């Protein structure tokens, strides 16, 4: 399970270091294979390849009226590998789409990660904290 947030830097070639606490697990369990795609809030989704393949089945089974969701998720999916130095190259199309330049935040979301521009992430967290828990959570308590 992935959790926590990690401020990171993208180098001039578009590479990002995977935090050591995740890197070893990702190298051992999935051979360092990841899939990047867009999310619908302006960041990126980062899946270990086996998790992406499960999600891919769900996406493929979406009804025809959700073709735009399929197009966004699948049309922007890129497979990448963690290199020997523990870095991944974030595809330039995705860096541009998510406006990732230098300072980013990798957020553990359980079975995958979100990747955000650090300023955008801080804005989202501030809004979430101010709003409190959504009514949709019903009886959920912390």
From TrEMBL:
<dbReference type="InterPro" id="IPR035642">
    <property type="entry name" value="MraZ_N"/>
</dbReference>
<dbReference type="Pfam" id="PF02381">
    <property type="entry name" value="MraZ"/>
</dbReference>
<dbReference type="InterPro" id="IPR007159">
    <property type="entry name" value="SpoVT-AbrB_dom"/>
</dbReference>
<comment type="similarity">
    <text>Belongs to the MraZ family.</text>
</comment>
<dbReference type="InterPro" id="IPR003444">
    <property type="entry name" value="MraZ"/>
</dbReference>
<comment type="subunit">
    <text>Forms oligomers.</text>
</comment>
<feature type="domain" description="SpoVT-AbrB">
    <location>
        <begin position="77"/>
        <end position="120"/>
    </location>
</feature>
<feature type="domain" description="SpoVT-AbrB">
    <location>
        <begin position="5"/>
        <end position="51"/>
    </location>
</feature>
<dbReference type="InterPro" id="IPR037914">
    <property type="entry name" value="SpoVT-AbrB_sf"/>
</dbReference>
<dbReference type="InterPro" id="IPR020603">
    <property type="entry name" value="MraZ_dom"/>
</dbReference>
<keyword id="KW-0238">DNA-binding</keyword>
<protein>
    <recommendedName>
        <fullName>Transcriptional regulator MraZ</fullName>
    </recommendedName>
</protein>
<dbReference type="InterPro" id="IPR035644">
    <property type="entry name" value="MraZ_C"/>
</dbReference>
<keyword id="KW-0963">Cytoplasm</keyword>
<dbReference type="InterPro" id="IPR038619">
    <property type="entry name" value="MraZ_sf"/>
</dbReference>
<keyword id="KW-0677">Repeat</keyword>
<keyword id="KW-0805">Transcription regulation</keyword>
<keyword id="KW-0804">Transcription</keyword>
């Amino acid at each position: 399970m992935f959790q926590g947030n990690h401020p990171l830097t993208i180098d001039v070639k578009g590479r990002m270091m995977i935090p050591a606490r995740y890197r070893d697990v990702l190298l051992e369990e999935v051979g360092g294979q990841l899939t990047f795609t867009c999310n619908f809030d302006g960041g990126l989704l980062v899946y270990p390849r086996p998790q992406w393949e499960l999600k891919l089945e769900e996406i493929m089974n979406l009804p025809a009226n959700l073709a735009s969701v399929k197009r966004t998720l699948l049309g922007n999916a890129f497979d990448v590998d963690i290199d020997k130095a523990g870095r991944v190259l974030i595809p330039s199309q995705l860096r541009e789409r998510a406006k990732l330049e230098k300072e980013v935040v990798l957020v553990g979301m359980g079975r995958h990660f979100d990747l955000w521009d650090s300023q955008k992430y801080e804005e989202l967290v501030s809004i979430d904290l101010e709003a409190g828990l959504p009514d949709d959570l019903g009886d959920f308590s912390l």
